Amino acid sequence: MLDIPAKKVVESTKTDYSFIQSLYYTFISVTTIGFGDMVPKSEIGRILTMFEATIGIVLIAVLLNFSGESE
């Protein structure tokens, strides 16, 4: 398990991205498009991106499953 203090996580994830840029990055990560124009620079950023993409892919799959079901 990683032994990273919470303060270091917060300090290493500080960026100058706007809200719109953050939404763009989330959309590109979750949809697995991955243009490569924005990439996490720290180890914790990469780990958080893996979790975000995994959770997003699962949520999209669930949404598509529910939209495809008929009564």
From TrEMBL:
GO cellular component: plasma membrane
SUPFAM superfamilies membership: Voltage-gated potassium channels
InterPro entries: 2pore_dom_K_chnl (IPR003280), K_chnl_dom (IPR013099)
Bilayer topology term: Multi-pass membrane protein
Source species of the chain: Candidatus Electrothrix aarhusensis
Chief location of this protein within or outside the cell: membrane
Locations listed in the record: Membrane
Cited PANTHER family: IP11374P (PTHR11003:SF291), POTASSIUM CHANNEL, SUBFAMILY K (PTHR11003)
Annotated keywords: Ion channel, Ion transport, Membrane, Transmembrane, Transmembrane helix, Transport
GO BP terms: stabilization of membrane potential
Transmembrane region(s): 17-35, 47-66
Gene3D superfamilies named in the record: 1.10.287.70
Single GO molecular function: outward rectifier potassium channel activity
Domain Potassium channel: 15-68
One Pfam family, short name: Ion_trans_2
Name of protein: Ion channel
